[in-house]
């Protein structure tokens, strides 16, 4: 027993040493942490904007305002999530080993889903901005295509974990493949499907705020403009709006997802 404890202690010490070395190697070459006077001024200005936000920007009947930009952001996230939810369905089923028996089809679809996940949303947004021009449409396409990889992987793994006894029972009674699929497989997949969709909507709302900074529409566009002109009061109200929007979406999504668990 003493030998086993000693060996485990040596293993833990070795793993700890490796982790320390990895972290040390990762931080080598980083510039020394330094807070400049301009940084303190910017931070104090941002906090001042939080305390004294530009409330007149919340709603302006005659022009662009906070509410319209937030609604654009939510619309981009919802449309992108809807596109991903539709496109990921065939990839998910064809990548599930218990549904498709051909290894080539399974491998091809898993590769496609992995390939899509390689590209960050911001890279896809830049590509679509070049293809269709700046604006919300580029953001919708970026979020819609980018989410297919993650949703497809999660849903295919959920499909592979379902109980096939119901399918076998229906097959034994003479049910055709379509009825077997509809009544034995779909009901087991739907709860996780909607749960993953709602989770991805939360992610897309956050991503949509960032994509606007590079010209893909949403609240990020007025935010980057306000930062460029140092309008800290407007920056403050925009950040407050983003916090409120994300918090509300998270609460609603969490309650909806809890119904499917």
Could you characterize the architecture of this molecule?
- The chain is an all-alpha fold and 261 residues long.
- It has two domains: 2-39; 46-258, MetI-like (MetI-like fold, Orthogonal Bundle).
- The protein has helices spanning 2-27, 37-51, 66-94, 103-118, 121-132, 136-160, 165-172, 177-211, 220-228, 232-258.
- Helix 3 runs antiparallel to helix 8 (177-211).
- The relative contact order is 0.14.
Summarize the structure.
This protein has 261 residues and is mainly α. The chain contains 10 helices and no strands.
Task: Annotate the secondary structure layout.
Blueprint: H1 2-27, H2 37-51, H3 66-94, H4 103-118, H5 121-132, H6 136-160, H7 165-172, H8 177-211, H9 220-228, H10 232-258
- CATH topology term of the largest domain: MetI-like fold
For the largest beta-sheet, the strand count, sense and barrel status come to: none
How large, in whole angstroms, is the Cα Rg?
Answer: 25 Å
Give the topology string: H per helix, E per strand: HHHHHHHHHH
**What's the helix count?**
10
What is the CATH domain class of the largest domain? Mainly Alpha
């Amino acid at each position: 027993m003493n030998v086993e404890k000693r060996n485990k202690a040596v293993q833990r010490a070795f793993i700890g040493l490796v982790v320390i070395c990895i972290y040390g190697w990762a931080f080598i070459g980083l510039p020394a942490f330094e807070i400049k006077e301009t940084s303190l001024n910017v931070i104090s200005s941002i906090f001042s904007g939080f305390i004294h936000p530009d409330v007149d920007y919340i709603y302006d009947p005659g022009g662009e305002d906070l509410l319209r930009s937030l609604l654009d952001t939510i619309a981009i996230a919802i449309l992108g999530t809807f596109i991903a939810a539709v496109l990921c369905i065939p990839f998910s089923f064809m990548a599930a080993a218990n549904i498709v028996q051909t290894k080539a089809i399974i491998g091809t679809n898993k590769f496609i889903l992995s390939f899509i996940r390689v590209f960050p949303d911001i890279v896809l947004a830049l590509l679509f901005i070049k293809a269709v021009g700046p604006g919300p449409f580029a953001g919708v396409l970026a979020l819609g295509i980018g989410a297919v990889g993650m949703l497809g992987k999660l849903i295919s793994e959920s499909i592979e974990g379902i109980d096939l006894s119901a399918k076998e029972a229906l097959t034994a009674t003479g049910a055709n493949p379509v009825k077997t699929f509809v009544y034995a497989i779909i009901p087991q997949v739907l709860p996780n499907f909607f749960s993953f969709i709602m989770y991805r909507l939360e992610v897309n709302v956050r991503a949509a705020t960032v994509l606007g900074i590079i010209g893909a529409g949403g609240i990020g566009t007025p935010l980057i403009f306000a930062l460029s002109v140092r309008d800290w009061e407007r920056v403050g109200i925009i950040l407050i709006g983003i916090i409120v929007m994300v918090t509300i979406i998270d609460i609603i999504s969490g309650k909806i997802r809890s119904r499917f668990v």
